[in-house]
Amino acid sequence: MAAELRTALITGGGTGIGRAIALVLASRLAGIGLALNYSKSKAEAEETAAQARALGARVLLVQADVADDEQVRAMVRAVAAEFGGVDYLVNNAGWTQFVPAGDLEALTDDIWDRCWGVNVKGAFYCVRAVVPLMRARGGGAIVNIASAAGIHGQGSNMAYCASKAALILLTKSLARVLAPQIRVNCVAPGVVDTRWVAGQEAFKRGARAKTPMRRIATPEDVAAAVVPLLLDMQFVTGQVLPVDGGLTY
């Protein structure tokens, strides 16, 4: 398939990591169709769309809560109607809430349900919806954005860590059942300098102190790992790549 006809769907594509991935893809593939999903950040998504269009991408903004299967299916139908199919999926949408590590009572059912709904079920819903489109195009590639917290168990809360660990195992399972047409990999960032940690200065200081590279990741650091997994590493599937400055090894 000609590069200019390729299409990528990026959930949580309007801000942070999603924005960085979108812009790298736009710079790598001339004329790529970018479907940028957002839930609430419409203004930021529009900014990302403008930047991607300036790089030559065709852009569709799609609002949907990925934790809702019907919204996901409607989103994918809209993408197919606009671009004709999907070649790449990045499950970047995520949710968390900071809870003190030892405060088990603060981990309410609402926090558990939202973490699981967005971070695990949402990723599965998106994969399930795009697989027929990818198969119709002859194949595709999926990258799930998990977290180093899903490996070592330290993060914003235990429910978040558990959900990201589940996403890592979901990646491995999907890679087995969707091969050889569709590759599925996972990137596991450490702390990333996005709006999720804005104002959490003590948290960021602690992360920097524990990280061998002595800094936290930028969204561009994560995009630099995601895009090659989508475009270049044609014999790599079922893998988890930590992008955390050496914290996990």
Short description:
The chain is α/β, with parallel strands linked by helices and 249 residues long.
SSE blueprint:
Elements: E1 7-10, H1 16-28, E2 33-38, H2 42-54, E3 58-63, H3 69-83, E4 88-91, H4 109-136, E5 140-145, H5 149-152, H6 158-178, E6 182-189, H7 201-210, H8 219-231, E7 240-243
Parallel strand pairs: 1-2, 1-4, 2-3, 4-5, 5-6, 6-7
The SSE order reads EHEHEHEHEHHEHHE
Q: What structural class do the secondary elements suggest?
A: alpha/beta
Query: What strand line-up does the widest sheet have?
Result: 3-2-1-4-5-6-7
Rg (CA only): 17 Å
Number of helices: 8
CATH architecture: 3-Layer(aba) Sandwich
Percentage of residues in DSSP E strands: 15-25%
Q: What average pLDDT do the residues reach? A: 93
* CATH domain class: Alpha Beta
Molecular shape: globular
Per the CATH scheme, the topology name is Rossmann fold
Number of domains: 1
Strand segment count: 7
Q: Are there runs of 5+ residues with pLDDT below 50, and where?
A: none
**Secondary structure: helix percent:** 40-55%
Ends distance: 37 Å
